[in-house]
Amino acid sequence: MGLEEKLPSGFVLTTVEQAAGWVRKSSVFPATFGLACCAIEMMTTGAGRYDLARFGMEVFRGSPRQADLMIVAGRVSQKMAPVLRQVYDQMPNPKWVISMGVCASSGGMFNNYAIVQGVDHIVPVDIYLPGCPPRPEMLMDAILKLHQKIQSSKLGVNAEEAAREAEDAALKALPLIEMKGLLR
Amino acid sequence: MSDEQNSNGVPAPRDETGEVIGVRKGMFGANNGGDTSGYGGLVRTVTLPGATPRPYGGWFDEVADELEGALEEQDLLPENAIEKTVVDRGELTFHIAREHLPTVARTLRDDPALRFELCTGVSGVHFLGDKGRELHAVYHLRSITHGRLIRLEVSAPDSDPHVPSLVAVYPTNDWHERETYDFFGLIFDGHPALTRIMMPDDWQGFPQRKDYPLGGIAVEYKGAQIPAPDQRRSYS
Amino acid sequence: MTTPHATPRATTEGTVYTVTGGDWDEVVESAVKSDDERIIVNMGPQHPSTHGVLRLILEIDGETVTEARCGIGYLHTGIEKNLEFRNWTQGTTFVTRMDYLTPFFNETAYCLGVEKLLGIEDQIPDRATVLRVLLMELNRISSHLVCIATGGMELGATTIMIYGFRDRELVLDLFELITGLRMNHAFVRPGGLAQDLPPGAVDQLREFVKTMKKNLPEYDKLATGNPIFKARMQDVGYLDLTGCMALGATGPILRSAGLPHDLRKTDPYCGYETYEFDVPTADSCDAYGRFLIRLEEMRQSLRIIEQCIDRLAPGPVMVADKKIAWPAQLALGPDGLGNSLDHIKKIMGTSMEALIHHFKLVTEGFRVPAGQTYTAVESPKGELGVHVVSDGGTRPYRVHFRDPSFTNLQAMAAMCEGGQVADVIVAVASIDPVMGGVDR
């Protein structure tokens, strides 16, 4: 994005990573992307009792251009999928995606013609949050886990290396269907 | 069926005059491969409740008389317009010949003794086994004035899926008819803009017809695969 | 296909169409030549002020909306089709997710339909019916609260949103206590309810009624007489009785036009004819009238809830017919809700017939005689009708929901055309469409 990506690897870069991560995680701006039941729980999380403002996230941005977190809250239909991708593309980097609820994560109980079986077919997902719908506490937990991830995210050459490692690990990973043992 | 049975909520007796919508063979839904249950020879026909003879009971007779009278006034023979009348589970259903549907609906709405001013939309049903009348459009009309509810049912064959539109009579049916077109491919002649409403504009096929698959995918677990709900073994 | 915007071109792979946007110079030229300020604004499907994924297409001349159209279907879930591949009892799990703000109404309407097809309406225990009414009225309060809260937020009134969600939490606490879930309960089942009230629920219900009686006047203080609120809502979203009847609008929209049509009074179900409550109406036909009606309906719901609590008599909550009653014996175990240990002991240890019966009921479900029925309940949004068709099998042949949000949303064009752009938001908020119900 900026100058920080051009830094050479070394302790300067890791220090900047720490600082940038701390700043970024302290003020995440979610885009309002409420789709279905989960959107109501997402609104509840922002309201009085659960008070997302404690984590610096009370401002839900209507415009994707001012947001860096997309909480996909609900089932994504085939008709909505292109819209969702466009909203994602409009968000500036760095950006993160939480797939809230089983419908967004895997299609859930709606295994049919109308629903995209997992929003990760369309956008890269950082946190999968189960539940139908997840309780506000669960959403807050997912957000805190995302904060940890943002805090430890890499910059510049370190980011490239981390991406390469992740790709290698993904290529080596055993496909689900070839795994043996109990269903857990 | 008498009125006493209606009020008790007992379903109408199944007679042979009913509308056959399918034939079921064997048990446990084993329609592909061998049936090892020992019930392979079991054959049952599935029929919907057939026509009910007069009297229908309660206010049903009054509505039927008024409707027939009002149709006759418009030089339309009631037996041409109304194919049959069914009373089942305390509900009155008129099966209407599709070409006369707008006339009947307008009469039901405008006649002061009938006055069914609220239409609660149209619901499509696809009976694959009802040969020649596969597609049914079901309308529920509510009379706020008299506190009554009746059902109109129209059918069309798959080869000619046309039903006259009721938007001119009940403007509320605008979206309902678009939805039924979207899901069942029933074409409502005379609708001002019959386009898809739920599915994307470029969608192929009509997803809620019985010959359209559910479209689910197999779900993978650790070392196992569970087929989509419509691919699993089922009980018919 | 021969349109000027898609020229065909033959290739080895077949005909290829090149879609172009036409000649932009001409478009620009004609736009410059025309002296009006007509533009087309596309709001949504992802827009903070349109409830959920509703797309509004507005043709605007200056600040005036000359034409308004809705684009829906962005949340189409295929629930009606999915139902056809599950048994009758599993159906409640799907229908509860249709209009996710009114789960108990969806469940009850569906179950009333299935019970009518089975012919067991008279065998439903009284306690189950009273509890259904209780849950529905609690649900009416929570649904209206969300309507008022989000409607207020769309006007820029954040305080009322905080108020609404604060009080909704109180209702959800009760739902969680009674059903175990905050939303999407699947608690009403064909034949009765999944479970009886847990201990202490009645006390909490009484406490809730007391708290709500204290909290509801706060909405009056904050909004009812508020001049800004009134200026934004009065005479906005106007739809008179003729328009309502033609467009099939029901619920608060119809009652704001002065017609006291409420299915609980005109076509009672679940014994509503034995409860004392009023049907509020307004004669203003506008968004403000609908707001007042929703507030008053919440007070009436509290009245009904009090009567329900007084009526609760001990007894079963599931029909006695073991061929239909499922779940049979539920209990809260260490790993969540499931079959009670006693029941499992009985079917596994003592009676093989009971085990076979349990297996058949759970895997196959019960059969419903062929036929069709239409049942309607008064949901917070209007007439929620369910058309259930059975072919005599263990699964629904067709279930169609006539959702009030879907029908009422058609009135959007009639309410908005000729008004200001800012009033579109108010009009849509006063319709209170929930896209889960609209698209299903």
TrEMBL record, chain A:
<feature type="binding site">
    <location>
        <position position="38"/>
    </location>
    <ligand>
        <name>[4Fe-4S] cluster</name>
    </ligand>
</feature>
<keyword id="KW-0874">Quinone</keyword>
<feature type="binding site">
    <location>
        <position position="103"/>
    </location>
    <ligand>
        <name>[4Fe-4S] cluster</name>
    </ligand>
</feature>
<dbReference type="GO" id="GO:0005886">
    <property type="term" value="C:plasma membrane"/>
</dbReference>
<feature type="binding site">
    <location>
        <position position="132"/>
    </location>
    <ligand>
        <name>[4Fe-4S] cluster</name>
    </ligand>
</feature>
<dbReference type="GO" id="GO:0045271">
    <property type="term" value="C:respiratory chain complex I"/>
</dbReference>
<keyword id="KW-0411">Iron-sulfur</keyword>
<keyword id="KW-0479">Metal-binding</keyword>
<dbReference type="InterPro" id="IPR006138">
    <property type="entry name" value="NADH_UQ_OxRdtase_20Kd_su"/>
</dbReference>
<protein>
    <recommendedName>
        <fullName>NADH-quinone oxidoreductase subunit B</fullName>
        <ecNumber>7.1.1.-</ecNumber>
    </recommendedName>
</protein>
<dbReference type="GO" id="GO:0050136">
    <property type="term" value="F:NADH dehydrogenase (quinone) (non-electrogenic) activity"/>
</dbReference>
<feature type="domain" description="NADH:ubiquinone oxidoreductase-like 20kDa subunit">
    <location>
        <begin position="37"/>
        <end position="146"/>
    </location>
</feature>
<dbReference type="GO" id="GO:0048038">
    <property type="term" value="F:quinone binding"/>
</dbReference>
<keyword id="KW-1003">Cell membrane</keyword>
<keyword id="KW-0520">NAD</keyword>
<feature type="binding site">
    <location>
        <position position="37"/>
    </location>
    <ligand>
        <name>[4Fe-4S] cluster</name>
    </ligand>
</feature>
<comment type="subunit">
    <text>NDH-1 is composed of 14 different subunits. Subunits NuoB, C, D, E, F, and G constitute the peripheral sector of the complex.</text>
</comment>
<keyword id="KW-0408">Iron</keyword>
<dbReference type="InterPro" id="IPR006137">
    <property type="entry name" value="NADH_UbQ_OxRdtase-like_20kDa"/>
</dbReference>
<comment type="function">
    <text>NDH-1 shuttles electrons from NADH, via FMN and iron-sulfur (Fe-S) centers, to quinones in the respiratory chain. The immediate electron acceptor for the enzyme in this species is believed to be a menaquinone. Couples the redox reaction to proton translocation (for every two electrons transferred, four hydrogen ions are translocated across the cytoplasmic membrane), and thus conserves the redox energy in a proton gradient.</text>
</comment>
<dbReference type="GO" id="GO:0009060">
    <property type="term" value="P:aerobic respiration"/>
</dbReference>
<dbReference type="GO" id="GO:0005506">
    <property type="term" value="F:iron ion binding"/>
</dbReference>
<keyword id="KW-1278">Translocase</keyword>
<keyword id="KW-0004">4Fe-4S</keyword>
<comment type="similarity">
    <text>Belongs to the complex I 20 kDa subunit family.</text>
</comment>
<dbReference type="GO" id="GO:0015990">
    <property type="term" value="P:electron transport coupled proton transport"/>
</dbReference>
<dbReference type="Pfam" id="PF01058">
    <property type="entry name" value="Oxidored_q6"/>
</dbReference>
<keyword id="KW-0813">Transport</keyword>
<dbReference type="GO" id="GO:0051539">
    <property type="term" value="F:4 iron, 4 sulfur cluster binding"/>
</dbReference>
<dbReference type="GO" id="GO:0008137">
    <property type="term" value="F:NADH dehydrogenase (ubiquinone) activity"/>
</dbReference>
<keyword id="KW-0472">Membrane</keyword>
